[in-house]
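Posting this for the archive.
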Amino acid sequence: MEKWLATWNIKIAEAQNEVVTHLRRILVHPNGPEEEKEKAALWKEVRVQCRDVLRRADKAGIRMEEHEGDRVATEEVIAMHSDEAKRNVQKEMQAAAVAQEQKEAEAAEEASRKQERDDYLLSVKGAKKFQKCYRVWKGRRRLRARLYHCVTKRFSGGKQGCANSCMCSRGAQQCTRTLETLFTRSC
């Protein structure tokens, strides 16, 4: 912010200097008919201001000759034009500040909208991932239930099992059951 204000202060000083040098040059050496008209208008302002300067000097009790009044009035008129240039640049500065604030507000609003959108998409993505995990778990559970319903494992009453895992008391050579007979399909 300080850099921005410093830049505008430089622009104000440059505008004032430009107006002062331009008016002083016109009073001494005008170039072309446009500057002649500007010089005439400036001298009218100086004459009006000179009357005011002499009036103020008389009220203050200061003796002032007319050429001194012209010099003081010329400086005052140039200062008035310089102040006018300063006010114009300050108006430009205020307009630029308003535009910059609007731009920053729009950028902040856009960032806020983007953040809200990203948060929403992230929550949706998380919810979808959770739903997918739930569907996989539920599907495996259903598949397991179907398989338990379709396939049953039957054992004989013996405590020691044979090599075919039928839990019979006979050994692997003596067991006549095969794995196909151990698992029967009921569906």
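The CA atoms of residues 28 and 67 lie 16 Å apart. The first strand starts at residue 151 and ends at 153.
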